[in-house]
Amino acid sequence: MQKRSDYPVSNPSCVDAEEAQGDEEIMRYIRRQQAKKIAAGATQEELDKLLCFPEILPLGIPSTPAAILKSSQNQFLSEFERKEILEFPYVYYIGARSRKKAAVLDNSTYNYGYDDDRGDYLAVNHDHLEFRYEIIDTLGKGIFGQVFHCRDHCTGESVAIKIIRNEKRFHQQALVEIKILENFRKWDPEDKHHMIKMTKYFYFRNHWCIAMELLSINLYELIKANDFVGFSTALIRRFTSQMLLSLSFMRHHRIVHCDLKPENVLLCHAAKSALKIIDFSSSCLEHEKILTYIQSRYYRSPEVILGMNYHMAIDMWSLGCILAELYTGRPIFPGENEQEQLSRIMEVLGTPDKEFVNRCSQKKLFFVVDPNGIPRPVINSKGHRRRPGTKTIAQVLKCNGEELVFIDFISKCLVWDPERRIKPQAAMRHPFVTAGKRSEPPAFFS
């Protein structure tokens, strides 16, 4: 009997036209960026960098630690590294002539000098990781650690490596992230569901390190480079279809991302509309929640703000916020704090019903606890007070009448009650997502 999957996969006959249209809009954006750079006096080499990925080098030739120690390369190793290198069966790169830090062997403070005061690894460009990877540059930094562009001297490929902070609580969460990424490799061997692909993980100098495929810019950088004016619903539809495939995949495997935002959605290539979801450092299996403070504020769901039990519906709320931002160029709910965040949500969605409020453990922070559950007044730093139900989603998005189907899709993501919020499988069948496709979307089974 043929096995039927209850989450969809990419359907080439269904998305070819959509992909081509999305790629065309991305290229128009690239041309605008190139025109701006030319006007500013950019060289052709600088323009080419907008579209180029690092070249793949030939496969590295491994050496043994013994051979390195006997060779002239020994002079480029610190005293610590001459002992450390013996832990590795093969050596591909040692970071010769880089300004590497030498460990302070008689002082364990800050990980013998390899870490800063918060436990982040003090990376040095062109030094090595695990005697295999060359650190090229910093890609980003967050609560859980740092991400670096690295060259894998074993395979010749460029990769992104996340180095987790050297602190017990972050070590624990890193193992959860590694487990999730390992499962993605097992569950999605053909890489069809737009999830970041882990290539290797390792433990180096008291830091968990996760090597992943190198991607391009994130959606926030794309919005910023487009001068915060937003994109067409055609390109947003292309992005939405891919993110829904990821969310359907995660829902099937009971995984909650917990930090879906434009910064965590990356284009695979600067000139293409294909994307992937990254950063599972806050993620969890639905029945194994570890973190209580989750989701970046602008994309935080009401149930998380109000201290309710949460599940996979929080990611659909975040998706709605992301799509609204892609359309307008600005966050839909840019609250200064959680109180103002909720007041901005109520300004558009109105006050939640009494039954919903009564289920919230943090209701006293946001509501006057009486039979009616009246919201506490919130005045922001500009002296402005927002009133529930005084705006519509259409007004906030500044949509015209032709975008009613897009407004309807956003409104189904931004629902107070997580049980009534649209689910990824149903969202794949919504007219906004299916519009313009040449065939029916993938079938779903519950």
Automatic annotation (TrEMBL):
Q: Which residues bind ATP?
A: K162
**What CDD domains does the annotation carry?**
PKc_DYRK
Q: Per UniProt, which keywords does this protein have?
A: ATP-binding, Kinase, Nucleotide-binding, Serine/threonine-protein kinase, Transferase
Domain of life, per lineage: Eukaryota
| SMART domains for this protein | S_TKc
Whether Kinase counts among this entry's keywords is yes
Which reactions does this protein catalyse? L-tyrosyl-[protein] + ATP = O-phospho-L-tyrosyl-[protein] + ADP + H(+); L-seryl-[protein] + ATP = O-phospho-L-seryl-[protein] + ADP + H(+); L-threonyl-[protein] + ATP = O-phospho-L-threonyl-[protein] + ADP + H(+)
| Domain Protein kinase stretches | 133-433
- What Enzyme Commission number(s) apply to this enzyme? 2.7.12.1
The UniProt record lists the keyword Transmembrane helix: no
Q: Which InterPro entries match?
A: DYRK, Kinase-like_dom_sf, Prot_kinase_dom, Protein_kinase_ATP_BS, Ser/Thr_kinase_AS, Ser_Thr_dual-spec_kinase
Drop me one GO molecular function for this one: ATP binding
Family matches, as SUPFAM superfamilies = Protein kinase-like (PK-like)
Q: Record's Pfam families?
A: Pkinase
GO CC annotation terms, alphabetical: cytoplasm; cytoskeleton
The similarity annotation says:
Belongs to the protein kinase superfamily. CMGC Ser/Thr protein kinase family. MNB/DYRK subfamily.
Q: What is this protein called?
A: dual-specificity kinase
Identify the taxonomic lineage of the organism of origin: Eukaryota, Fungi, Dikarya, Basidiomycota, Agaricomycotina
